């Protein structure tokens, strides 16, 4: 065991690194983990004001948080993000990689520059964060990636995005096996249609209503729904490992 792989911390000393922490789901995850007693490192690439405001809200509520900028596709910036967690709070126990982008277009019309951008953030970013997490997370910890229910729902215009998330599924399952003997779980959450700016951008009301009606619960998910699943995987779900959990209200 090296100095980056310390023993199990007490419950109140657990530290979470959340990428995409200034986004809709990312913010909900940060708030939920802070409520559960985690010190939270809010990683962001854009919207610095939102990240700093979230950190202040958590601190004002008696929690521990710090905001830090990092491009998930840049290995040096990701290493520095994890370094912030160590210097501020003493280590890393949970990593939640919510950072991602979604651009929709039919395969025949997709600009390959857009495909490359999604690849860099959704695939390379997940790999870079996962690699650093594998080096840093302490025994008893959890790594939680973000997939998408669109991998299975397979709606037209989602091909590039769903393909990027299919890669996340593969990485998640293999990393779980590579960390054998470390007492670290690796899972992915696959949200369905969820009311976030990322998902709602560019959709008319008729499209939103149609997507909401796909679930037997007859609504879109909300960020708090997804944060609840993350909290389960981060804490009590020690026997859930190498899985992709579909959090979509029952959409087939």
Structure description:
- The protein is of the alpha/beta class.
- It has one domain (12-194, 222-246): 3-Layer(aba) Sandwich (Rossmann fold), CATH 3.40.50.720.
- The chain contains 9 helices and 7 strands.
- A 7-stranded parallel sheet has the order 3-2-1-4-5-6-7, with helices on both faces.
- Helix 2 links the parallel strand 2 (39-44) and strand 3.
- Helix 1 (24-35) packs across helix 9 and helix 3 (75-89) runs parallel beside helix 4 (112-136).
- The longest helix has 25 residues, at 112-136.
- The radius of gyration is 17 Å and the shape is globular.
- It starts with 14 loop residues before the first strand and ends in a 5-residue tail after the last strand.
- Mean pLDDT is 92; it is low at 1-7.
What Rg is obtained from the alpha carbons, in whole angstroms? 17 Å
Count of individual beta strands? 7
Largest sheet: 7 strands, parallel
- Low-pLDDT segments: 1-7
For the terminal residues, how far apart are their CA atoms?
A: 43 Å
Mean pLDDT: 92
Question: How many helices?
Answer: 9
Broad CATH class: Alpha Beta
Shape: globular
Strand content: 5-15%
Number of domains: 1
Spatial ordering of strands, largest sheet: 3-2-1-4-5-6-7
Assign a percent range to the helix content: 40-55%
CATH architecture annotation name: 3-Layer(aba) Sandwich
**Secondary-structure class:** alpha/beta
CATH topology: Rossmann fold
């Amino acid at each position: 065991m090296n100095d980056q792989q310390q023993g199990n911390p007490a419950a109140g000393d657990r530290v979470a690194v959340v990428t995409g922490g200034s986004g809709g789901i990312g913010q909900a995850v940060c708030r939920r983990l802070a409520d559960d007693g985690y010190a939270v490192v809010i990683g962001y690439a854009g919207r610095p004001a939102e990240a700093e405001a979230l950190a202040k809200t958590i601190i004002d509520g008696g929690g521990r948080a710090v905001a830090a900028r990092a491009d998930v596709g840049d290995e040096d910036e990701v290493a520095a993000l994890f370094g912030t967690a160590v210097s501020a709070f003493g280590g890393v126990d949970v990593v939640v990689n919510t950072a991602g982008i979604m651009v929709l277009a039919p395969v025949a019309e997709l600009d390959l520059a857009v495909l490359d951008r999604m690849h860099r953030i959704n695939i390379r970013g997940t790999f870079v964060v996962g690699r650093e997490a594998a080096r840093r997370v302490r025994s008893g910890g959890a790594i939680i990636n973000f997939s998408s229910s669109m991998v299975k729902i397979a709606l037209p215009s989602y091909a590039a995005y769903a393909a990027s998330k299919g890669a996340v599924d593969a990485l998640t399952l293999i990393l779980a096996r590579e960390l054998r003997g470390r007492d670290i779980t690796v899972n992915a959450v696959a949200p369905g249609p969820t009311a976030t700016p990322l998902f709602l951008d560019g959709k008319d009301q008729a499209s939103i209503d149609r997507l909401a009606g796909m679930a037997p619960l007859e609504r879109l998910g909300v960020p708090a729904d997804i944060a609840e699943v993350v909290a389960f995987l981060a804490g009590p779900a020690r026997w859930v490992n190498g899985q992709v959990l579909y959090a979509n209200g029952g959409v087939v």
